[in-house]
C-alpha cells in the first residue's frame, strides 16, 4: 500500500529557543515541538515528570459528591459493590478499587459482566442480583455513562450509583449521585483523556485526601504510588494518549510493574516470560494485556480481577496459566476470522488497494465470536486504512466492534446512524454497536456515505508522520538514548520517526525470521554503516527492486525509521527499525 510521508516544517526559532534553554539537541527540541510541547516549562515537565505534577482530583466535576457519598457509606457500614468492564481497563480499575478499600479495612464486592450473555455495561438482572445481596452503593468503573434505565432500576431498589467512566458522553445522562468523567462539557478538569483506571485512581486520591483531612481513620492510609502498576497497565491497554497526566502515570507505573509486589502481576510476568526485565509499553500492550483481555473475550471475565487481587502465589499461577491458555485460543480464533475477512474483501474487490469509493468496511457473520472481532476490526482498519466494523450475528441481532483511523471520529459517525442502531457507545477511535440483522445493509450504505462526506482521498492513504530529517552520521548512541528517554511511547507520543535521505544500501540483504518475513540490510552514509531491520517487510525487497549486491546509484534510497539501541554480547550499536523506503530522487 502506498504511503504519504508527512514532513513537518521546522520552526528553527522555536527549536533554537527550546534547545538553548533546556540544553538539549535541536533534534530532541523538534520532536517535542511536533508533540505540541512548545514552551520550556511544559518541556521540562515532559522530560522530567514528577508525581506532584498530577492535577488535584477535586478539579473533576462531582468528585466532592462522590467522595462524600463513599465516606457516608463507610461510616454507615453499607455494602459497596464495584461494577467494572471486562476489558483490561475495567479489570485494572476494578482491582484498584477493591485493593484500595481492603487496605482501608473495608471489604467490598465486585461484579464483572459476562461478555456473551450480559454484554457491556450495567444490566438490570445484574442490578437486581447486586441489590439482593444488600448493596447500598455501586461504583462503576469504565462504564455506566449511557446506562440510564439500569441506574433508574438501581434507584428503585434503593441503591445509589457513582459513575466513573471515560467514554463519550451521550446527550442525556443517567441520574446518578455523581458522574466522574472529564469528557463532560462542564467538567473543568484540565486533562480529558484519562483511561477508566485513571479516573478510578483519581477517585482513590480524592478519597484518601478527604479521609486524611477528616482525621477519623486510625490506620495507615494506602500508598497509592504502589498501585500505579495497575494504572499503567489499564492506560496502555486502552490505547489512551500518553501525554500530560497519562505520561506521568505510565512512566512511574512501568517502574512499579517492573518491581511490583502484587502476587498476581508477578505470576503473570512469569507465565509471560518477562519476569526478569524492565517492563516497557510493548510488554504491557502485547504481552501482559492480551492475556488479561482474553479472559473477558472468550473466558471468565472476572478471572482477571481474581488474579490481580490474589495474595496466594499458587492460586495466582493457576489463574495465570488459565489466562495464557485462553489467550492462545483467542489467537487461533482471531487468525481464523482475519483470514475469512480478508478473503471476503479480496473476493469482492480483488487483491490490493480498495476503490476510493469504498471508505469503510462493514461485514457481518453468524460464525464470528463477538469477543474477538474487535481485535480483527482493528487489524483490518490498519491494513486497509479505513474505519472497520465487524458484526457478530446471533439470531435477528448483531453485536459489532468498530475501529477507526486517525482521520475519522467513529462515535460521531455512529451517532448519525443512531436511528438504525439498537445501541452504541465508545469514543473517537473505537466503539461498540448493537443492530438488527435486517438493518445491516442500510447501515452499511449510510455509514460509508457518512465517512465519504467527512474524509477526502488523502484520508484513505496511510500517513507516516516524520519527526525530523537527519544525517546518519549525527545519529550516535547518545542521541538515540536521549530520543528513547522521551518515552513511554504510545498513542499521541509515538516513537520518533526519522527520515534519512540519499543513503546507500550495501552488501546483500537477507530475509530473517521463522518464515523469512523480516527484511535485513545495511546502509552507508559517508563512512558510517548501520544495520536496518524491517519487521514483516520482506515484501519490500521485491517492491523496491533490491538486488543481491549494490554497487551503483540504483542502491540510493530515502529511508524512514525509528532508531534503537541493539544490545548484543555486551556491546551496543545503533539499529534502524524500518518504516518505509523509496528510491532517492524518484
Write the layout of secondary structure elements.
Layout: E1 4-6, H1 12-22, H2 26-34, H3 40-47, H4 63-75, E2 79-83, H5 88-103, E3 109-111, H6 115-118, H7 124-132, E4 135-141, H8 148-156, E5 160-164, E6 178-180, H9 196-214, H10 228-237, H11 244-258, H12 263-272, H13 281-298, H14 303-308, H15 313-349, E7 361-365, H16 373-384, E8 388-394, E9 397-403, H17 410-415, E10 423-426, E11 430-436, H18 440-454, E12 463-465, E13 468-469, H19 477-484, E14 498-512, E15 518-525, E16 528-534, H20 539-543, E17 556-568, E18 571-583
Parallel strand pairs: 1-12, 2-3, 2-4, 4-5, 5-6, 7-8, 13-14, 16-18
Antiparallel strand pairs: 8-9, 9-11, 10-11, 14-15, 14-17, 15-16, 17-18
Helix pairs in contact: 1-2, 4-9, 5-9, 5-10, 7-8, 9-10, 10-11, 10-13, 12-15, 13-15, 15-16
Report strand order across the widest sheet.
3-2-4-5-6
Evaluate the radius of gyration. 25 Å
Structural class: alpha/beta
How far apart the termini lie comes to 17 Å
CATH class of the largest domain: Alpha Beta
Short description:
The chain has 20 helices and 18 strands. With 586 residues, the chain is of the alpha/beta class.
Q: How would you characterize this protein structure?
A:
The protein has 586 residues and is of the alpha/beta class. The protein folds into four domains: 1-46, no CATH class; 57-323, inorganic pyrophosphatase (n-terminal core) (Alpha-Beta Complex), CATH 3.90.1640; 353-461, Roll (Diaminopimelate Epimerase, Chain A, domain 1), CATH 3.10.310.30; 466-586, Beta Barrel (OB fold (Dihydrolipoamide Acetyltransferase, E2P)), CATH 2.40.50. The chain has 20 helices and 18 strands. It has helices at residues 12-22, 26-34, 40-47, 63-75, 88-103, 115-118, 124-132, 148-156, 196-214, 228-237, 244-258, 263-272, 281-298, 303-308, 313-349, 373-384, 410-415, 440-454, 477-484, 539-543; strands spanning 4-6, 79-83, 109-111, 135-141, 160-164, 178-180, 361-365, 388-394, 397-403, 423-426, 430-436, 463-465, 468-469, 498-512, 518-525, 528-534, 556-568, 571-583. A five-stranded parallel beta sheet has the order 3-2-4-5-6, sandwiched between helices. The protein has a five-stranded mixed beta sheet with strand order 7-8-9-11-10. Strand 4, helix 8 and strand 5 form a beta-alpha-beta unit. The longest helix is centred in the middle third of the chain and has 37 residues, at 313-349.
